[in-house]
Fold this sequence. Notes:
This protein is 41% helix and 14% strand. The chain is an alpha/beta fold. It has a single domain, classed as Alpha-Beta Barrel (TIM Barrel). The protein has an eight-stranded parallel β-barrel with strand order 1-2-3-4-5-6-7-8, surrounded by four helices.
Amino acid sequence: MVALAAAIAVVLVSAAVSLILPGQSGHVDEAAAFGRAHGPYEGLGTWVDMYSWSDTFTGGIPRFGLADVDAMAAAGVQTLYVQAASQTGPATVLEADRLLPLIRRAHQRRLSVVVWYLPTLVNLADDMARLLEIGRLPADGVAVDIESTDVADVEQRNAALVSLSQQLRHALPGRPLGAIVLPPTLLEVVNPKYWPNFPYAAIAPSYDAWLPMAYWTGRLASSGFRDAYRYTVDSVRRLRRDLGSAAAAPINPIGGVSVDGIGLGDMNGFVKAAKDTGSVGGSVYEWPGTDPAAWPVLRALRA
């Protein structure tokens, strides 16, 4: 009878843990279970946006599903970064009935999951509402995609970004927060007018890890930055300098973009750059379109 009672207790506890009640965080600390020092931001990752997995933004023909999560695990991916909310419509999780099975499958395959959202910074209440909603998902981290210039005035944009970052940190004190940022190489060398005086140091206390969008495929060959190694190295080194006192924070550069064509030479250069800069890993934007032959090369980034 004692053994039976203990077995029933285990089942009941397991069932309770699996439930996500309204207003509660469904955070599952998978990263700690996997034993990675920097949680979900360490090791090899890949990205999937709402234009790949959702019915809403693919016209009902998504090109990413459960079988792709299985393929990710087989390829050696350790973290799935998935866009979990859109800037339009209700301030809720995007298609939770489709997204939650993807997250569950990822955990079953021992992948960590980071959910992310791209705020406009025009209405901080709406941005915060969406971030808090995705923060209730059973994911291992929440990341903020910081690239919108919808707020034209740079000073107002910077102030809004700092405020949003601080509010999010205060609201989610125990969650690993990631900053998906435009790399300083883009903002200081390639196009200084895009976002002058980006407040890297000012938002540094709010984030646990940094994910610079080192998309070398968007650079012209004449700039010298169409080279995966050079662009990634320069982006990470400048980011450490601009972070000031937070220069030692974990950095996991994002390589890409897959739809623009990434060769194996690019991938080799990206892996070498991540290692040479002391990055904690690397990821690729995005899973759809990445050549399957690239994953054996990228596995060198696994934690």
